[in-house]
Amino acid sequence: MELVLDVPQIQALIESYTEKVDSLIESYVDRKELLISLLQDIQAEFNYLPRDALVKVAQKMDIPLSQVFSVATFFRAFTLKPRGRHLVTTCLGTACHVRGAQRILDKLERDHNLEPGGTTEDSRFTLETVNCLGCCAMGPVVVVDGKYESQVNPDKLDRILRTYK
Amino acid sequence: MVELLQKRLRSPSELESRRQSIVQKRDPNRLCITVCAGTGCRASGAEAVIEAFKDEIERREIQLDVELKETGCPGFCERGPLVVIRPKRIFYQRVKPEDIPEIISETVLNGTIIDRLLYVDPATNEKIVYEPDVPFYKKQTQNILGANSAIDPTQIDDYIAIGGYSALSKVLFHMSSEEVVAEIKRSGLRGRGGGGFPTGRKWESCLHAEGDVKYVICNADEGDPGSFQDRAILEGNPHSVVEGMIIGAYAIGSHQGYIYVRNEYPMAVRHARIAIEEAMDYGLLGKDILGSGFDFTVSISRGGGAFVCGESSALMASLEGKIGEPKAKYVHMSEKGLWDKPSLLNNVKTWANVPLIINKGAEWYSQIGTAGSKGTMIFALVGKINNTGLVEVPMGITLREMIYDIGGGIPGGKKFKAVQTGGPSGGCIPEQYLDTPVDFDELTKLGSMMGSGGMIVMDEDTCMVDVAKYFVNFLEGESCGKCVPCREGLHRMGEILSDITRGQAGMEDLDLLEDLAGTLRDGSLCALGTTAANPVLTTLRYFRDEYVAHIEQKRCPAGVCRELIQYSIDPEKCEGCLRCLRACPTEAVSGEKRKPHTIDQSKCIKCGACFDVCKFGAVIKR
């Protein structure tokens, strides 16, 4: 099974951050139960879970790699693929759905060939969906790199995305 | 170090004198600007408003005697960013950074009301000046949420000033474990996470469970789409949850607690963390709490975003660092839960109710609500509703009061169709049941449930088959895949519903749906599966005609299902402005300037772009 996209630049980046991975793991030593938190920290650092980091976690924490992998693939929050420069998160909560969130996904697929979990060929955008951000008053909501955009329709989406290169 | 020692409270009397000294230092008549800094208001620009206030106050040459407070969410997200000027509680809504200099010079310095920032009651067109007079709040009983707008959640002193931790002090020094459990039992409190299990009974079985090591857990893995009340409490008043947990721990004899919170709620995580640190410094957590000899600590565990982890055994598996798969519950979690030790798991709202019950008494608490459901419930009122937000009401209020009196009805003069309660595995309730009192048992009778308190309003433009498909797809994605009925049943139901929305199903498929629903209900391992068919069953029960229209007439009455609708242009209304022509991604629209346009159906992909951009209402969807 393919764990990770093999992008040389990213590998180089990981190597330079080996120390970072080590120090992250260090703070969780002997706390096997905090595996999920550790993976969250690693993902926060690299934007995804690099294969090497998972192997390292398994070795250093003395957890079977299969278990690390199962956790890394079970939870929505984790991704094993590198992300693009900008993260577009579309809320698909019920309130956003009844206000037309699906049309935003249709638009992204049509214009950018982007499906949930996918990244554009030029690595400009990665699309993720979330089941509720809890700001239902503003739906449909799209978050780009942490910035909340309210009452988004396909036309507005165009204008928003244009500002991210 | 010295400072830490001074902070530490060693007895109930030290807590009380600390409270008095905090209150004495504060002038209740001092001007105080509170800005809601909850996630909802932040998303609509509260941070810029707060910055603008800071700049403006600093910029003034004369020093202003005014306090600026960032508070939690009072619930009225629709009108954010919200600003309240105390002590009078002048209420400004949809405030923008450019309004700030005027608010300072007019309202804060001169007491003049700025008309345009006031809330206008759409029912009467009357402008409302003071926060308590806003109809949205007036009908509510904000026993839990009320504190959110008065305190800064990152300041423990704010919580202590309003009587915080006095319930803990009472319990530690004046009540035995059994008395605490008895009090909770007498209050009639039922679990607010969805199940509605009597909280006191859960505590009791945990108290009597054998074992030296026991755990207390707060479930803040609010995964229901359209629910954000747990987040609002944890963000806005984290100490109330922590205090509830310490009381629970004392009652069952536990010394370690966990708050399991979604990582998608970064501010809730941060505020809970600050609250725990502050409580440690004050000697309200940790060793020898308030000098009572009782020890208890709380850790935070961040969830990985899996809906099924709201289920108790899945949540505990995840706490152990494993994937969140539920277990069959031959043995209750209260006897063998986390690491096979007795574990007391309650929802955020349940914990937040505990200090209230201890302080005001079970008798007071049980007077609120209905025969079987006591206290208040916090709902997230969302969807096609004028006043989106959090609503705290006594159990037993009718759906109609919630939707029309508090929620302000349906926007745009549209007709109400249904309200979906109980999260993804709840049900859709039609208009004829709007006068039903809302409590655990009444909602179950209607085929829905209370769940975590989500309430999604749908209007005539919502297709009920599409809604059922949405929930089934959601649950299919969130099913952990461990048991077959849930994993395969939901997948198959999704396929059938998809066929219906494409006009490719037969009437016999409706029987098949019902059959599958029964299998899911009877054969699934956990509540995700057993309740997953509710949205399908209730829409079939109350909106069968819509299913029939999709199947027999190949028509989507609400105009939602893409394969069954058609866009066309009304030549009478079309002004020939070329807007739709430019917006069309497939060049299906043709026409000349100032002449009516037409849509080539063979090219149309039904994206609705023309419908969105038309300013004359000339694009018809049917």
Second CATH tier, the architecture of the largest domain in chain A? 3-Layer(aba) Sandwich
Most extensive interface between two protein chains, with residue counts: A-B, 45 and 59 residues
CATH class of the largest domain in chain A: Alpha Beta
What global shape of chain B is seen?
Answer: globular
Secondary structure: helix percent of chain B:
40-55%
- CATH superfamily of the largest domain in chain A, by name, is Glutaredoxin
What is the CATH architecture descriptor of the largest domain in chain B?
3-Layer(aba) Sandwich
Key phrases:
heterodimer; A: 165 residues; alpha+beta; Glutaredoxin; 2 domains; four-stranded mixed β-sheet; 4 strands; elongated; B: 622 residues; alpha/beta; Rossmann fold; Ubiquitin-like (UB roll); 5 domains; five-stranded mixed β-sheet; 26 helices; 40% helix; globular
